[in-house]
Specification:
This protein is an all-alpha fold and 515 residues long. The protein has 18 helices and no strands.
């Protein structure tokens, strides 16, 4: 009702007395409960649809022949669920459960076990039992339903039992956790590569498979309910909850998360290198970036490791698939489809937003009150200094992406020419310039922030959201040929040129603290 009363033209006609009307509260509670149940049922069916698509891919592209659809679909569904549920987890108690215990002085152990058991039963009903019953009735396979439901019950029970087991183990030795995670991820991959999914389905969806699944589920439930250190485990959960609440209280605005985290993690270095030629506005910016250089470098390393890890994994997979003759010849025209994906990747990895947050939180929020700081020449000097720093970080990321693409030369099935790499370099250079300029441009032109770190410009929010959706649309589109990459480079040059003129003439009026 609170949000309904905030709807324009409608909310003003709803009196605050509705909050006191108990029958309405009960009605809305029942409606919300039914809606949540239907949503869980919908997402449970959605996983089956994804599994069906996975089965079709496995049948058409891996085995090159038709396989039994129902058992293979359910098996792939179980594998997808297992990749999530079987991973090592340390903290599974919801904050809402701990808050309920504190507010009503309930018994911690019994309440948490009852609430968690209720959630597990609801998941088993909506995401497993109902969809599996429908499939079982369609294909008339009773053991498929019994074994699959048992396997899912085991996954949910293992989820709770393993969280306590890993919690006991975390301070002793992390090697078993790492080995376990590798087994969880590599086993499905091995089954797919060696074509053993059908054999596993035959063994799992049988009377013996059903018995083993339910037996394992019961053993995990017994371990969970009889866990000897439950009191210490819950006490640790309480400490984690209090830390989470404190973090939420400290977070003034979600947009400034990176800027505030950089400020908190700042460590003053006794030997900061600042150019002796810098003076005035440039000296201030040099000092700012010198202070935060270690933290920015950490962010850069994390981005580089993530991109390099994903890139190397893809290259290794291509080489392996080529060796076992699962990869056909890929022509250069097909590779140009990847240009749209690079737009989205550069958007996610860009340093534009973190640097803008850093600048406002640690410099501009104080300096924008002084008129000399908003003079056209001072604004342009500061803008281009910051622009160069952003290009430096984004350029390193683009350089790594280009190097990873050079790795395609080691895959015999992929044929690429010098022209492909020339156009790729042109696009990456254009994307580096675009994402380094764009965030600073709208920041200087709109300056949407208040002194207490609030975003008050609706236009800024619209542009910020539109940028994400544009990047996502580029990800979905499949561009062929080199026209798209050339367009990005030409558009960026025009955008930077026109944007620089707009900043010179408009920023002195717009670049100020919002009320």
């Amino acid at each position: 009702m609170y949000f309904v009363r905030r709807i324009p033209f409608i909310g003003r006609h709803i009196t605050p007395h509705v909050y006191r009307y108990r029958p309405l509260k009960k009605f809305l509670t029942v409606v919300c409960a039914i809606f949540r149940f239907l949503m869980h049922l919908f997402f449970g069916g959605l996983t089956f649809l994804i599994a069906l698509l996975g089965m079709l891919f496995y049948s058409d592209f891996i085995l090159k022949r038709d396989i039994a659809g129902s058992t293979s679909t359910v098996l792939i569904w179980l594998i997808l669920i297992s990749l999530v549920e079987l991973m090592p987890r340390k903290y599974l108690i919801e904050n809402d459960a701990l808050t309920l215990i504190d507010n009503f002085h309930l018994d911690q152990k019994n309440t948490i076990q009852a609430l968690t058991l209720g959630v597990s039963l609801r998941k088993n009903l909506t995401a497993s039992l109902i969809p599996l019953l429908l499939i079982g009735l369609i294909v008339q396979n009773f053991w498929l339903v019994v074994a699959s439901t048992g396997a899912y019950a085991f996954l949910l029970a293992w989820n709770q039992a393993s969280s306590r087991f890993w919690w006991q183990l975390q301070n002793k030795n992390k090697l078993p956790i790492i080995l376990y995670a590798l087994i969880v991820y590599l086993t499905p991959l091995g089954l797919v590569l060696f074509g053993q999914l059908e054999n596993l389905a035959t063994s799992l969806f049988s009377p013996l498979g059903a018995l083993i699944s339910w037996l394992l589920a019961v053993l995990c439930v017994i371990y969970w309910l009889k866990f000897p250190a439950e009191t210490q485990f819950i006490s640790h959960m309480n400490q984690m909850k209090n830390k989470g609440i404190q973090l939420k209280l400290d977070d003034t605005d979600q947009y400034f998360a990176n800027g505030l985290n950089l400020e908190k993690s700042l460590r003053l270095e006794p030997t900061m290198q600042i150019s002796k030629k810098s003076s005035g506005n440039n000296y201030l910016n040099s000092l700012l970036f010198a202070r935060f250089r270690p933290e920015l470098n950490k962010m850069l390393k994390l981005r580089l490791l993530s991109i390099a890890g994903a890139g190397v994994l893809i290259l290794v997979s291509l080489v392996v698939f080529n060796r076992i003759h699962l990869l056909g010849t890929i022509k250069e025209e097909q590779l140009t489809n990847i240009y749209g994906m690079l737009f989205f990747l550069c958007y996610l990895a860009s340093f534009g937003r973190p640097i803008v947050q850093l600048l406002f939180v640690n410099c501009d929020a104080a300096m924008l009150y002084y008129p000399f700081y908003r003079q056209p020449k001072a604004i342009l000097k500061g803008f281009f200094f910051r622009f160069r720093q952003t290009i430096l970080y984004n350029g390193i990321i683009s350089g790594l992406i280009f190097i990873l693409f050079l790795g395609l030369l080691i895959v015999p099935a992929i044929k690429v020419s010098v022209l492909f790499y020339f156009v790729l370099a042109l696009e990456l250079a254009g994307l580096t310039l675009f994402f380094s300029f764009h965030e600073l441009f709208i920041y200087y032109l709109l300056q949407p922030f208040t002194s207490d770190l609030k975003v008050v410009s609706p236009l800024y929010k619209i542009i910020d959201g539109a940028m994400y959706w544009i990047s996502y649309l580029f990800l979905r589109e499949h561009f062929s040929g080199y026209g798209y990459a050339i367009f990005i480079a030409v558009f960026t040059l025009g955008y930077v040129s026109i944007g620089t003129m707009l900043i010179y003439f408009l920023a002195p009026k717009k670049f100020r603290i919002r009320a």
